[in-house]
Amino acid sequence: MSYEIVIGLEVHVELGTKSKIFCGCSTEFGGDPNTHVCPICLGMPGVLPVLNKTVLEYGMKAGLALNCQIAEFSKFDRKNYFYPDLPKAYQISQYDLPLCADGHIDIHLEEGTKRIGITRIHMEEDAGKLLHGEGSVDFSDYSLVDLNRTGVPLIEIVSEPDIRSPLEARLYLEKLKSILQYIGISDCKMQEGSLRCDGNISVRPRGQKEFGTKTELKNMNSFKALEKALEYEAKRQVELLEDGGQVIQETRRWDEAKGVTVAMRSKEEAHDYRYFPDPDLVPLEIERAWVEEVKKSLPELPEEKKNRFVEQYGLPEYDADILTSSRSLADFYEETVKGFNNPKLVSNWIMGEMMRIMNEEGKELTEISLTPIHIIEMLTLLDKGVISGKIAKTVFEEMFHTGKKAEVIVAEKGLTQISDESALISIVEEVMAKNTKSIEDYKNGKDKALGALVGQVMKATKGRANPEMVNKLIKERI
Amino acid sequence: MSLYNLTIHELHDKLVKKEISSVELTKDVLARVKQVEEKVHSYVTLTEDLALEQAAAVDKKIAAGEELGVLEGIPVAIKDNMCTKNITTTCSSKILANFKPPYNSTIVEKLHDKGMVMIGKTNMDEFAMGSSCETSYFGTTRNPWNLNNVPGGSSGGSAASVACGEAIYSLGSDTGGSIRQPAAFCGVVGLKPTYGRVSRYGLVAFASSLDQIGPFTKDVRDNALVMNAIAGYDKRDSTSLNVAQEDYTKSLVNDVKGLKIGIPKEYFVEGIQLEVRESINKGIKLLESLGAHCEEVSLPHTEYALPVYYIIAPCEASSNLARYDGVRYGFSAEEAADLIDSYKKSRSQGFGAEVKRRIMIGTYALSSGYYDAYYLKAQKVRTLIKNEFEQAFQKYDVLITPTAPTAPFGLGAKTGDPLSMYMSDICTIPVNIAGIPAISLPCGHTAEGPIGMQIIGKSLSESTLFKVAYTFEQNTDFHKQRPSL
Known about the structure:
The structure holds 2 protein chains of 2 kinds. Chain A has a 9-stranded mixed beta sheet. Chain A has helices at residues 53-65, 166-182, 223-242, 288-297, 302-313, 317-323, 327-339, 343-361, 372-383, 389-402, 406-413, 421-434, 436-443, 448-460, 467-477; strands at residues 3-14, 69-70, 73-74, 77-80, 90-93, 100-109, 112-125, 129-132, 143-146, 153-159, 195-205, 215-220, 250-255, 260-266, 276-277, 284-285. Chain A is α+β, with helices and mostly antiparallel strands. In chain B, α5 packs parallel to α6 (180-186), α9 packs across α11 and α9 crosses α12 (372-395). In chain B, 39% of the residues lie in helices and 13% in strands. Chain A binds chain B through residues 39, 42-51, 78, 80, 82, 84, 87-90, 145, 272, 274-276, 279-282, and chain B through 81-83, 89, 91, 96, 99, 101-103, 105, 200-205, 207-209, 235-239, 315-316, 318-319, 322-325, 327-329, 339-340, 343, 363, 366-368, 371, 375.
């Protein structure tokens, strides 16, 4: 039997506000344990929360960028449970009246564009961090509590069960990350936990309308992990059903090392969170004028930018898609084009050389010393014929690693292109004398033989010879 | 007359005229504490050294000829559920017996800025859950008028301390009557302001949507003076009201001519003690004779206020008190097998019976499947009660009722019967449900102790309450009487 996979994702995003959601403490990552805390986020007796207005604004930005409706009336609720990383023993979250609802994201598949619905986005506070003595809670005599993260603002973005494969799930999450980074509300670093993803997954025989029993997956800490965990879990569920078994509704943890999902707790063990409206916070009445203002403040989003790149720069869709995958890369590209008006050539260098080295070395755009000015200057040298295309690659790599200007590198290493005929003639003649066979071949109609001769000259000049000129000189002499 | 028997305004005059010093006054009050504390037990913690230090600082100001604020140098007692930096704040609970807050509540900060002299932290029902001060982990406070009786609660220590001169004024908190009922039982003036009028920041929460801080004083003028100091918007409390400051002393005029007073009949039904009924009726007649128009009014939803309260307050409490888990501060049980066991033992041993009862009621009422039937329904009825009051205030300036259905009752008389204990707040609870202000002032005496009259007003009408209360006071002498101890 053929099965269909049904996936919905719950994504937690830490907002990049300077201070926490309900107090003035810093949200900075790192810091010695329990140094970014105050009586309020420590949940001391008598303290009261006051909403950080920027959190609301960022939440609205996310909602608007993800095509959601922004609620006119919203409120905070308490989610009650005991755990040592939760000092108040309740998390301030939103239950039945979230800030945003009814949005969507479009993802691009080979067979075309697919729309994934977004059910809701709500605001909440993050919990603290537990450090277990022996690494795992099961084997430790003690656990240490770090409450720096307590009260860091989060939004939770819940998708509709519209996702039909682990690949779609990854594309959805990538697109989501790109949009959130574009609007500048989060750095979305999965490794630092500022972007966290849980998945609900079920399978059903193709054609069946009802959903199968779902499991909830946790601990998927990278895009790769997300895809692998969902693949594993889908396979596990299908095999269970094929063997005549049943899927149990439960929460499962992705074990990255073993490559399997492991049961954490069943539905029966699930908490009763006893949600109720937080009486310490007044309900939110969100003025439409403010929503409009926030809407106007949104930057160009990836989809719009991509379309503009195709139109304005005449780039292929493929190039535009990659160059707009992050706002910083798109800005980098546009800045470079501004200084060197050959959009496709610039795209080739950025997508080719620059991203190749970044990938090889695992570097982010923010971590490199190469700037658009570097590339502009190098391309200008290339354009003027000061350096050859081949030399340009060497120069580029050197600029990337040292941050030196192209001119400096060219001067230091003597990489200037030789375009002086008198300097080239003797080399050309020498090469021709040694390669009479090639000359014969060329005369007999083998056009490729000319390339071999040019190549020899380039080799002799360590790539500095102007190839067009070499071409011309050889032809004149045959 | 001893200094401890005087009012804030009388003592302020003496300080300004340099007839007395703040240190003298403070020593007088501290001596009174030594004399009667064993019998009355108003305090959980005494801060004698701090008080004398603060008094000396005020005296320096006086000596330097600086202008003196009206509360400056006047000894105050603070209920032990308001956070005082580095001074234990126990809520009269074992679970917080050793808790020293790292910060000051807004209210304490405000009084500090006004030159307060803090005598100590007063006894209360554990986490303000009770009407007699008997659920305190630190022993019961007694009624200064009759030591066999309770002082009322939960702010029993604050009320008793002012009644017997262990403080010149005090602060309490009122969730369902916890200022007004003990004020009535102890023969002092107690105000529960409009919800949001006084900042709750630093008040250890019992039921967040009902809790409100207010003053205990010997007379109405003092009450207005303290309200001038403590009322006001606080950006640290999202539920605090951003409205203009008022000078409440401007409303201290002896005049109720033309004032319309409603007498809600539902507050005078079964269970009201005859002497209470008579005292209130006498009070109403007096106001009528002074030119007020009094007439009976019906508030049919009154009977639902108590059940609504006993759902909403425990629900909020069950969540507010969940943080006391013995991990970061407060009592922590020894010899726990694991985390859950540690939670269970710390909370089982740290909380008293009444607190546990309310946590269980609240946890139950919020549980999945019960929420709609209890919490949600209660919130809907709460709105009806609020609307009913609003309607009444379209016709009447104030409503007058007894503060409590009975005179002070005996120690231990109701501890075995929670429901009868809950009934002692039947006249005060509707006011918290509606978030409106009400004042209690002495209007009679029995062998068991004083009787209080409650004047209820619409939202932010504290000045009207002061005006009616002041007029009543000017034409009676209950406020001049002191218990003999």
